[in-house]
Every structure is written in C-alpha cells, then in structure tokens.
Amino acid sequence: MQNKCKHRQLCAAPARHELSLCLCLCRAEDSAMENIVTEKKAEESHRQDSADLLVFILLLTLTILTIWLFKHRRCRFLHETGLAMIYGLLVGVVLRYAIHVPSDMNNVTLSCNVNASPATLLVNVSGKFYEYTLKGEISGSEINDIQDNEMLRKVTFDPEVFFNILLPPIIFHAGYSLKRRHFFRNLGSILAYAFVGTVVSCFIIGLFMYGCVLLMKQIGHLGGDFFFTDCLFFGAIVSATDPVTVLAIFNELQVDADLYALLFGESVLNDAVALVLSSSIVAYQPEGDNTHTFEAMAMLKSFGVFLGVFSGSFALGVATGVVTALISFTFTKLRELPLLETALFFLMSWSTFLLAEACGFTGVVAVLFCGMTQAHYTFNNLSPESQDRTKQLFELLNFLAENFIFSYMGLTLFTFHNHVFNPIFIVGAFLAVFLGRAANIYPLSFLNKITSNFQHMMMFAGLRGAMTFALSIRDTATYARQMMFSTTLLVVFFTVWICGGGTTPMLSCQKIRVGVDSDQENFVSIGPDGVEMRSTKQESAWLFRIWYNFDHNYLKPILTHSGPPLTATLPACCGPLARCLTSPQAYENEGQLKDSDSDLILNDGDISLAYGDITVSTDATGAHTSGTPVGGVAVNSDEALDRELAFSDHELVIRGTRLVLPMDDSEHPLPLDSHRHKNETMSLVS
Amino acid sequence: MQNKCKHRQLCAAPARHELSLCLCLCRAEDSAMENIVTEKKAEESHRQDSADLLVFILLLTLTILTIWLFKHRRCRFLHETGLAMIYGLLVGVVLRYAIHVPSDMNNVTLSCNVNASPATLLVNVSGKFYEYTLKGEISGSEINDIQDNEMLRKVTFDPEVFFNILLPPIIFHAGYSLKRRHFFRNLGSILAYAFVGTVVSCFIIGLFMYGCVLLMKQIGHLGGDFFFTDCLFFGAIVSATDPVTVLAIFNELQVDADLYALLFGESVLNDAVALVLSSSIVAYQPEGDNTHTFEAMAMLKSFGVFLGVFSGSFALGVATGVVTALISFTFTKLRELPLLETALFFLMSWSTFLLAEACGFTGVVAVLFCGMTQAHYTFNNLSPESQDRTKQLFELLNFLAENFIFSYMGLTLFTFHNHVFNPIFIVGAFLAVFLGRAANIYPLSFLNKITSNFQHMMMFAGLRGAMTFALSIRDTATYARQMMFSTTLLVVFFTVWICGGGTTPMLSCQKIRVGVDSDQENFVSIGPDGVEMRSTKQESAWLFRIWYNFDHNYLKPILTHSGPPLTATLPACCGPLARCLTSPQAYENEGQLKDSDSDLILNDGDISLAYGDITVSTDATGAHTSGTPVGGVAVNSDEALDRELAFSDHELVIRGTRLVLPMDDSEHPLPLDSHRHKNETMSLVS
Question: Which stretches of sequence are listed as region Disordered (chains A, B) (predicted)?
C-alpha cells in the first residue's frame, strides 16, 4: 500500500500558554479502507475494555461468594478486604505471567512542532479528523513498557477514577453511618487524634524517611531524586488510616462502643486531614530556582492552603447538607414519593462533590461532612422508606467500591510496571509507620486519659487502606513517587492481613470487653447515681454542650420536624419569626412536652419513663421546664444529649454491621413505627 | 519566549493496519514552566468538567422538585420526561445565547505523517511524554465549531455514554418490571408487533423517506449524500417506541391491563429489535466500488447479522440470568446477608452487559432478557429484603437515567452545532412516522383480533424516546446523519409533548375502560362460566402452553425454590437425578400438594379457595392430579398460568407506578409474609 502524505501546516500560531487546541494534519490516499480499519479498531478497543471490566466484575463476584463462605464458617482471621486483595494478586499473577499477548502493534512517529500539550488534539488522517483527548503525562521509562505490554496497561485504570468515582461513596457512607452518640461523646479526643495526631504522624514519618533517604544516598542506593517534600508527602499519605477490617470485627464481637467511636471517628477524619495535607505539601513551591529549599513564605502559603481547602470543603459539605435538609423540610409532601425523595437525596449529595471540585476544594472532604449533616438533619425529614433506601443504596455503593479498590490493589502489585522496591526504604517505611502511629496515639491518649489497653488497641488498629492507596497511585510519574507507591502497597498488604487478622487475638490479649450492648450500656449510665459512666466523657462534653444547645434549640427546629418548636426556644421578641419558621409538627411535639427523640426512649425501657421530657428541660432559656425530672436524679443536658444521639444511632446502620450481624437492632423498625402511630393517636386525643 | 523545536522521527515503520501506538516528538526548551501550565490546565479542565456535570445534576434536582409539584397538583398533561426536556431546552438556550466565553485558545498545527488513527497517541513535548486517547472522528465542518465555542462542546457527552451507562439500567428495569402475566397472555400479539411490526415500520419509513430524499434532490434541497441505506437506518431508529409517558398515565388511571401489556411488551421488545436492526443496516456493505447499490449477498449477510446478534444477545442474557438463579439457588444461606445478595445480583446483571459487548453482541438487548430471566427465576430465590433492594435500586437508576437522557435531549436542540433542519425532510419524517406506525399497528391488530379502540390507542401511543435519541446521536459525522438527528429530536419532542399530553383525552375519546383493578379482573375471569374473559387470549396461549408446562415442571424446580419437586414431574426412570436436583423446600411444597404460587391466591380472596391446588393439576405427565377441581368448572392450564403470573406481578413494581400511586398493592408485603409464616407452620404439622 502506498501512502502519499502531504504535510500541511494550518497556521503557525504564536506559542501561548492558553492554547487548548491543536490540529495535526496528514493526508493519505487510501481513505475508504482506513475508515473501516479505524472503526474496527475502535470496536476492538471497546470490546477489550468490556472484557477488562468483566474481569473485575467476576473478581468481585468471586469475592462476594467467598466472603459469604467465610461469614458462614465464622472465620475472622481474614476480612473481605484482605480476601479481595488476595484474589486481585492471583489475577495479577495470571495476567502478568500466564497470558502472552503477541505484540501486534507498530510505532508510527508523529513529528510535530508543538510546545505544550493541549487538552484536545485533532489529527487529520486522510481528510478525516480524529479527536484525541489528553490522558496524562507518561514518564520516559514507561514508553518502552507501553510497547512491551499493552494488555497490562489496559487493566490499569486512570487514578482519577479512584478520587472521582470510588472514594466519594465510601467516604459519604462513613459520614452517613457515623455512630454519632459515641462520636460526639469523644469529640475532643477524636479531633485531637485526627488533626494534631495526623500532622504529628506525617512529620515524624517524613523526618524518619528523610533520614533513610540520606542514608540511601550515602551508600548509593538511590536511583533518582528524593526531596524532603517527597518524604513529607509520603508521611501524609501513609497517615490516613482505614480500619474497615478492625471495625467489622469490633461490630461482630460488640466491642466497647467508646473504643469503636474513637477508632472510627479518628479514621474517618484523618482521611480528610491526610488528603488535604498531602495536597498542601504538593502546593509547597518556593520561588527561585532551587524548588526544594525551605522557605518561610512558601511554608506559610502551604499552611494557608491547608486551612483554606479544609474549611472550604467543610463549609461546602455542611451547606449542601443543610440545603437538602431545608428542601426535605419544606416539601413535606415529597414523603409520599420515596423514589423522588431518594433521587433528590442522592443528587444533592453528589452535587456536593461536584461543587467542591468545581470550586477547587476537595470533593471527598466535602462529601464526608455532607454525609454527617445529612445524617443529623435530613435523615429526620425523610420518609421511613427513603431512610431505608438511602441507607441501603450507600451501603451497596460503599461495599462495591471498597472491594473494587482492594482487589485492584492486589492486582497492581503485579501489573504495575514501574515498581521500585528498595529494601532500605521499605524497612524504613515500616519503622516510620510504626513510630508515626505511636507518636500519634500515645501522647494524645495520655492527654485524653484513655486507658492503656485502649491505647494499645488503637496503636494496633492503624490499618492503611483505600485512601492511602488512592493517594499514592494518583501520581507515579517520578522515581520518588514510584518508590512510595510500591512501598505503600506493601504497607497496606501487611497491615490489612497481619493487623486485620490479629484483631481478635489482640482484643483478648488486651482484655478489652466484648459482647457489650451499647444500648444497654446507655441505660446503665442513667443508673441511680447517674455519674458512674460519664467519667470519660465529661472532659470533652463541655466544648460540645454549647454546640448541642444551639443545635437542639435552633438548628433542629429549623431544619427538621423533630426538636422543640422555635416559639419555645427563641426569646419572646422573636415570636413572629419563630411562629413563621416552626413546622406544625413541632407544635404537636410541644403539646406533649417532649420531642420524638426522648419519646423513643420511653418505649425502649421502663426505667427511662420518668425522663420523658428531659430534652425540653435542657432548654437554656428556661422557657419550658414544666417537665421536671422525677426521682431526684440530677439530670443534666449530657444525658439528653446522650439519648438523642442514641436515638439517631438506632436508625443508622453501623458501617459493615449488616455483613456481620443480620440481627442488628437497626433491623427492627417496629418500635419506631409503633411510636409514630402512638404519636398520631395522642395528638388526636390532645 | 523562544521555542526551538527539533523534529525527530523515531522510526519509519511500514504502514500496517494493526498499528495502535503512535509517537509524536517535539522538543521545546522551556520545560519547567510548561509543566506547571500543563498541570494547571488539567486542573482547570477537571474543574470545568465538574461544573458541567453539576449543571446537569441541578437540572435533575429541579426536575424532581417540579415533578413532585405536578404529582401533587395531579397535572397529567405533562409527564416528567416532557418536563425534563423543557428544562433542558431552557438551559440550552442560556448556554447558547446568554453566556459568552471569550475564546482563549489558539491553534497549533501538528503536521505529521501518519496514515491511520491509532487508539493511543504519544506526544513528546519538551522531553515529557503525554498520552492522548482517541475520542472519535470529527466531521470537517465541526472543526470550525470547535474553535468557535469550546464551552458548548464541553457540555456534550460522548454518545457512547448513552449506550454503556444510561441505557442499560433503563432497559434492565423494563425487563425486570415487566407485568409478566399479561405479557405472556398476549405474547403472540406482542411478538408480532415487535418483530414483524418493527421491520414493516422500518421499511415503510425508509421507502417513504427515500421518496422525500429523491424529491429534495430534484429541487436541489439536498446539501450532501443521502443513500437508501441511510433512509432505512432512519426508519430503524424512529421505529423504537418508548411509551414511558403513556404507561405512567395508564398506571395512574388503571387502564385495561391487556392494553397496558400490549403497549409495554411491544415497546420493550421493539427497542431491542430496532437496535439490532439499525446495526445490521450499518453492516450492509456490498463489495465493489459502489457501496450503496443493492446486492443480494450483502443483504443476506445483513439478515444473518440481525439473526446472529439478536439470538446471541438473547442467549447470553438468559444464560447470565440462569447462572444468577443457580447461584442464588445453591447458596441459600446468602439470604441471611441481603447486602451480599444484592451486590451479587447487581454485578451479575452488569456482567451480562459487559459479556455481550465483549463478545460483539448487543449489551442492551442482552440486559433486557437478563432482566426478564432474573424476574422470572432469581427473584424467587432472593430474600424479601433483597427483593425490595434490587427493585428499588433499579427503579432509582432507571429514574435518574431516564430523566438525564430527556433533559440532555432538550439541551442538544440548542447546543448541538451541526443541526440540519430541512423542512421537506421534517414534514416527510412526520408523515412517514405516522404511516409506519399505522402499517405496524392496524394490519397486525386485525390479525390478532384486537378491538378498534385499542388499535387507535396503540397507534396514538407510539411515542419516541430514549432509544431513538441514543441511536440517532451515536453517529453524527455525515450530512445525512446530522439531518436525521435534527429531525429525530423534533419527532421526539412532538410525540412526547403532544401525544403524551393527549393520552388522557384520547382514552376518554376512545371510551377505554379506566379504573380497572387488574387483580379483580383476574378473578372475574374464573367466574362460573369460566370462558368469558379468555376470548382474546386463547389464540396466543397455545404456543405458550408448551413452554409454560416445561418451565413450570422442569425449569422452576431446578432454578428456584418454588414449583413442584422434580421427583413428581420427571418420569420415574430419572428418579435418582430428580432427587439429587430437588431442593428440600420443594418436598415441603409437595407435601401440601400445592406450590407457593397458587397458595398466595388462596389468601387473596375466598372465591378462589377451591382452586388451591390447580397448578399441580396442570402437570402434563399426570403424576399429580390428586387435587381435583371443585365446583365443576373446567379449569385448564391457562388459568393456572394466569394465576402464577399474577402472583409474580404482585411482587414486582410496575414501571413508574411508585411515582403515581403510593398505595399500589405492591406496597403490602403482609399477605406474602403471613403466607410464608403459614407455610412454615403447616410444614411443621405435616
């Protein structure tokens, strides 16, 4: 076949940095045949993509069936995520070594005079234009690999898929299913671990790794650049803990709820902190030529980026949650159409992510706080069917995304081409991770007066998972990043398999109570002396009490149909405004002098019957203290807080619980329904 | 800034058709700055993408809120899909005319000597390699548009998104929620409409449009090529009907169930037929130079493609459905973990699509039959919670996808750049669509003995929707395709707004019964004379009776836990095999001499109490006729069939019903539960 290419240059535009289009012209005479070939190639490529995705789907199917087998046989030494990784590893080995695809491609060289990489590239082949989109930068060493094995590259996903598709549902689910009672009870400790602890851990790991890197440089084991910022970046990404495995076992064994809350709260928040931290480390760019020296201004700017991105994402997430709550509060008739309600909830939560990304904030962080806001306000306005639907939907999405990430993780160990396994760096990393975790947990636990067995357990439960992996695979262009990625994979494997598998022995070794019914414990705390259980929580409760009063008296009545009417909580001068904002249902609540939260506790056990109206008595303005505490117990707002949050926990499925305990109490909507019914009849009577 | 580009040609490989890689080399000196610019550009592009998607999400949110308002006010003149289109139109107008983005890009010309368009393109800019992926072909006229308005192009989705992401859940939902009783009762008519009718309609429209095209050529109104195959292709794509709007109103008004089944069955199947038909028309390629002449061999080959693709997709869909049923049948303990069960169901259904695409069949068609198989077999093996979850999940996905497609449809009227609105073609198309529908409905209705008011209603309800749109937007490269796309949009708008809005007046004009309770009607049919209602269905039932017996006696027992035990239905010689394949639950059923399907009817009304064991008496082998019909009524297998399918309908939500009637009978799981409970106690007694 003869090709007569005529080069033609459309226009020699001056090289500017805003260019985003590029035309590539080439003419060949044999257009008809080429056409068919191109179409066939596109079809072939689509088929191949389908087949690759199918491999993953079948992998997930296999994982699910095996998980079932494990659950059925009550094996606790290997969690589903560990299992998914093993399957991923096996498939990776098969793809790497067992399948040999004959290399059927040839290189065609395009010589062209562009000086930047535009987002869109137009190539003119035989009079037909083909559009190409920028996929990303490729390191020089990878080019040979592309030619080596196209097939392995095919099963490699764009790392942005993890951030834009797989992480959001996982993080949203975490926020939406937070055990809020215990979370808020331990808010002080959790915030300390998540913010102070993660930053400390990041810097400890960074410094330690910098020492290792210097050592490696000394003995000539370093094959490329490795700067201090790279070390800090590594510190940030391996500081994100993911205790899915541990928490699943905690749930199954019903481990102490405070320990559960500490671990869960810490891991959820420190994902967000580590993510923002890593992006502000990347943003550290001193001026001048030497881009890796220390500079106070650049440092301050990075710190500003951290604060700005975190608070911006937080504000956006909360704002979208509040808007959703307001919509569901205003359009009450939406409750009759659960499908619309669920769709609205899903779309609003998704738009949080998109809005944050569009504004330059971090979508994943926004989604976390959106989830928490939705659970706290919107959830109360949803119809019971929508409550179930949204929970189940995000549970399913979380399950699929999580298992996909973990099996992909196993796969990449063999299919990723640029692994840099450096023994010194790996040993150093394991030590650094251990030290960083210790520096995070022990000093802060001492300050927060957490018992030593809890400290050891938290130390042990610092598993690394989805977030660490997603952060490390996001950029594997340089030598340093490749070494980090390979090492991170090993850290994840080790912690998930060894620490995850060792949870049960560790629990019994540390003599931590198992089989604790968190509701039971709640009622114990309201025993005759009323103080015994709150010794650990009093320290952090003070900072939350102000917030709680504000939330209960003003936000809940405005955003949900529960809580006291605003007319009761606002000062008398705001009367007209309050009447206008209060929903009719709130007045019904007022008629009974209790809100639905405390009412539920009424149905739960007879001992709390006397406290049916405590939540109203927490009112700081003193407008409604008609419901006086009975029995002479000093009932303070902490208990009301406890109960309110306990109520919320009832309705939310604990992360992963469904998998372990189908007889979880969230499965019994009956008390709630009977309560609702009772509420209706009572309002008819009154 | 100075750029010193050095052209370098890596290797001058011979031009082969298998090439899939291409290197494009160019060197510039200013690499550091370029790097940052590229990164910023990628970030900017990501932000823009997020913002675009956000527009759609907010559009959907707005649509949902307005739908709710319409439902609330009981407006029936405009359906949600019509509403979504209006919002899409408005946003399209705003994007097109109100927002002016300053064109900030320049063209850089790449001159290069390739003779084909590879799937991956590597561009070397300043020593860094950037990877580009092939997005698709662009028509010459579009190139200027790209330069004109990048922003409008940004809100344009890859047409393959419709086929690979949005259509599958819609079609699966259609299959999963098919009202199977009435569908099978009218199977003959539905198959006639779907296969014969769609082909007839396609050819009538194609011939008529070819006449129009010849006329246009005569008077010089044609601005490009328009071949007979293009006309036929147009005929195929506008023959796919989408009666979402009509059926939603039918549901609300409880229109005659047979009419509903005819319309729904026809529209679901003719989507599949039209899709395969259009791809086999594209596959029509006569040998030789003149590629648009008639040639018998090519025609036969196209026909072969049609049969092959359709039957292949059908077989694949059914096969995956059966495999899922077998898994859920074997791993019965999975019922304890509804999350795993739902995930498995979802993954298996998705893998049908991927498998079909990977094999070169049509994923959408495979998914339709997979949905029907899942509903018929797998659904019976799922736990009640998973039954709810899967229904709700696909209902939500269907709702979101459908509204997205319709609002996108409205948007493209203004944002698509290559509209070709030809008055003659448009008028011709409307006439042709009318004629084609008439040629589909009236002759076949005459053969199937369908009353004239039903015929007129079906004629009127031939709305065009998602499938027509997706097929027409798939390829808009040539002049002919652009004209088709523009005309198709208008046809969809017209039918959805005018025919959709006119459904209620049309129903009353044609004096079609409304307010018919389909269950009630079922029991009327088993009145004392027992024949009155089956006059319309007897014709088609004979071809289904053989299948029904086979399904009921062999497939249901093997694939589900309902149905009689195999030991009863297989000949005695197969005893050991039968015992091995029959589930213990089936024996329990046998002990009571009835299966769960007929048992439900027992609970439904007292008149049918006498027929509690009819389904076993349908056994063709005569092994179990112990349960004799009481009351002297000639009970034949048709009635059992009716009842079994009626039972299934109880459990499946009718497409769109949730939206309209929250008090739909599928909302009452109580009879089912009490039945289940009763079944258990009875087996304890026996």
Answer: 667-686
Tokens of A186: 């331990």
pLDDT of residue B494: 92
Answer whether A143 sits within 8 Å of B129, measured CB to CB: yes
Sequence spans of domains, chain B: 159-286+297-510
- Cα maximum dimension of chain B: 100
Inspect the interface and report whether the beta carbons of B51 and A354 lie closer than 8 Å. Answer: yes
| Cα–Cα dist A86/A81, whole Å | 9
State the complex-level ipTM. Answer: 0.76
Contacts of B659 in chain A (CB under 8 A): 337, 339-340
Helix (H, G, I), strand (E, B) or coil at B109: strand
Q: What is the pTM of this model?
A: 0.77
Structure tokens at A340: 């619309």
Query: Nearest-CA distance from A262 to chain B in Å?
Result: 26
Task: Read off the pLDDT of each residue in A318-325 and give the average, rounded to a whole number.
Answer: 92
| Element spanning B72, H or E | helix B31-73
The CA distance from A112 to the nearest CA of chain B, in Å, is 5
User: Residue B130 has which token pair?
Assistant: 């950037």
Find out whether B560 and B605 touch, Cβ atoms under 8 Å: no
Asked whether the beta carbons of B274 and B467 are under 8 A apart, the reply is: yes
In the three-class reduction of DSSP (H, G, I as helix; E, B as strand; rest coil), residue A480 is classed as helix
Statement: residue B681 has pLDDT above 70: no
CATH class of A159-286+297-510: mainly alpha
Residue A387 has pLDDT above 50, yes or no: yes
pLDDT band at A111 (very low <50, low <70, confident <90, very high): very low
DSSP per-residue letters across B607-664: GGGGGTTHHHHT-TT-S---S--SSS----HHHHHHHHHHHHHHHSPPTTHHHH-TT-
Radius of gyration over every alpha carbon of chain A, rounded to an integer in angstroms: 29
Per-residue b/e over B536-575, b at no fewer than 16 CB within 10 Å? bbeebbeebbeebbebbbbbbbbbbbbbbbbbbbbeeeee
Sheet containing B21-26, strands listed edge to edge, beginning at the edge strand earlier in sequence: A107-111, B21-26, B120-125, B128-138, A128-138, A120-125, A21-26, B107-111
pLDDT average, residue stretch B625-639: 41
The DSSP 8-state label assigned to residue A562 in this structure reads: -
- CB atoms A117 and B130 under 8 Å: yes
